[in-house]
UniProtKB/TrEMBL annotation:
Coiled-coil segments: none
Organism: Aquabacterium soli
Family annotation (SUPFAM superfamilies): DNA breaking-rejoining enzymes (SSF56349)
Descriptive protein name: DUF4102 domain-containing protein
InterPro entries: CB (IPR044068), DNA_brk_join_enz (IPR011010), Integrase-like_cat_sf (IPR013762), Integrase_catalytic (IPR002104), Integrase_DNA-bd_sf (IPR038488), Integrase_DNA_bind_dom (IPR025166), Integrase_recombinase_N (IPR010998), Phage_int_M (IPR053876)
Family per record: Belongs to the 'phage' integrase family.
Keyword DNA-binding: yes
Keyword line: DNA integration, DNA recombination, DNA-binding
Gene Ontology molecular function terms on file: DNA binding
Stretches assigned to the Core-binding (CB) domain: 109-190
Domain Tyr recombinase: 213-393
One GO-annotated biological process of the protein: DNA integration
Length: 415
């Protein structure tokens, strides 16, 4: 029978290995295990695993770790892996350096880093308001929990832990949007080679879906009661200003939240929203009723040098998309009304007052895409829209006062 090959070293021998003595002085010593693997016992007593090998005719030396952190069995396993690479013509030393670099790079590719990169790409396509909505929700609900995690390490369970508190709080629409945005960041990570899969798919159906009630509108008939609730709401002036601006102008919540002082000409009573903030990427001119101008002047004094006309009460940044929802909830309209619902109430109210649909659509930035038509509607209709919105703002005052009067009619809208 062929002679059985046995390894030269044992656990007991390695555990008790000591340096050699030369003239009574400790010196380095090598204990060979076979096939190039040996334990280097330093004069200091430290023990290191080494693998000597040849590649392309050159002798090389691979460090495998220090004993006892790397046991004899582990050293043999690592030596075997290195020999497999050598047989394929791969230098295990260089391969180890490359793998370490990949691990370091992966650790640096955090969810926060990928999020910033993804938003940078989207900034070229999205309006400023939409970009800020995405960033704010990720800052509020996601980055504090998984922002520092390597994006490649995230699992469906990690995402579940981010979203579960939103479900518990009943913030189902916020949950839907946050989940969608996490998924978009992870899709980008897959597309750019930072991940091989997107775990957001494994959270599909795990949470309660929001109902259509979140997008309900109270309609013009419900406005008097709402205005009374708004008048009695002890919220921050900026929050109240956002809600009132939606009512006075019919503008989108994001358009109002992202408004900056330089967009307003309060002497002329005009608000010019730049194209990059508009859904249709066109400048939108909004006439301001007297009531809006008065409030805006007060807010400019209140907020001083803030970048935004209606900044967050917390830190002067752009107010979050939930600020209106939270205010409505405190007023007793949670789940019954949204900023979109207020905008719809304005549209319906103006229709009931007899104003032409084309003028209302222009005011709400729902005009046709044809540029010639758009220019006409913005310019020629501005004076008529200014009259329309002043009549509307006056009607809101009448509603608030509780006066029982006949519905106001458009004075010249149909002319």
């Amino acid at each position: 029978m062929p002679k059985k090959l046995i390894d030269a070293l044992s656990d007991v021998g390695v555990r008790g290995a000591k340096p050699a003595l030369r003239d009574g002085v400790p010196v380095d010593r090598k204990l060979h295990d076979g096939r190039g693997l040996y334990l280097l016992v330093r004069a200091s007593g430290a023990r290191h695993w080494r693998l000597k090998f040849y590649l392309a005719g050159r002798e090389r030396l691979l460090a495998l770790g220090e004993y006892p952190d790397v046991t004899l069995a582990r050293a043999r396993h690592k030596a075997g892996e290195a020999r497999n690479l050598i047989r394929e013509g791969i230098d295990p030393i260089q391969n180890g350096r490359e793998q370490k670099a990949l691990r370091v790079n992966a650790a640096q590719q955090t969810f926060a880093v990928i999020t910033e990169e993804w938003l940078g790409k989207k900034a070229k396509k999205w309006t400023e308001g939409h970009l800020e909505q995405n960033l704010q929700s990720l800052r509020d609900y996601v980055l504090p929990k998984i922002g520092t995690r390597a994006v490649a390490s995230l699992t469906a369970q990690d995402i579940m832990r981010v979203l579960e508190p939103l479900e518990a709080a009943g913030k189902l629409e916020t949950l839907r949007r946050v989940r969608q945005r996490i998924g978009s960041v992870l899709t980008y990570a897959v597309q750019t080679g930072r991940r091989t899969d997107n775990p957001i798919r494994d959270t599909q159906g795990a949470f309660q879906a929001p109902t259509r009630e979140h997008f309900a509108s109270i309609g013009p008939k419900g406005l008097p009661a709402f205005l009374n609730a708004l008048e009695g709401y002890a919220g921050h002036p900026n929050t109240l200003g956002i809600i009132r601006m939606i009512l006075w102008t019919g503008s989108r919540t994001g358009e109002v939240r992202g408004a900056t002082p330089d967009e307003f000409d309060l002497d002329a009573g005009v608000w010019r929203i730049p194209a990059e903030r508009m859904k249709k990427r066109r400048v939108h001119v909004v006439p301001l009723p007297r009531q809006a101008v008065a409030v805006l002047k007060e807010l400019k004094k209140l907020n001083g040098a803030s970048r935004y006309m209606f900044p967050s009460p917390m830190n002067q940044s752009m107010a979050s998309e939930n600020i209106v929802l939270q205010a409505l909830k405190k007023m007793g309209y949670g789940g019954k009304l949204t900023g979109h619902g207020l905008r719809a109430a304005v549209s319906t109210g103006l229709e009931e007052m007899g104003y032409p649909i084309e003028i209302i659509k222009t005011q709400l930035s729902h005009a046709k895409d044809n540029l010639t038509d758009a220019a006409y509607l913005r310019g020629v209709h501005l004076e008529r829209r200014a009259e329309m919105m002043q009549v509307w703002a006056d009607k809101l005052d009448v509603m608030l006062a509780g006066a029982k009067v006949l519905p106001l009619k458009a004075t010249s809208a149909a002319a």
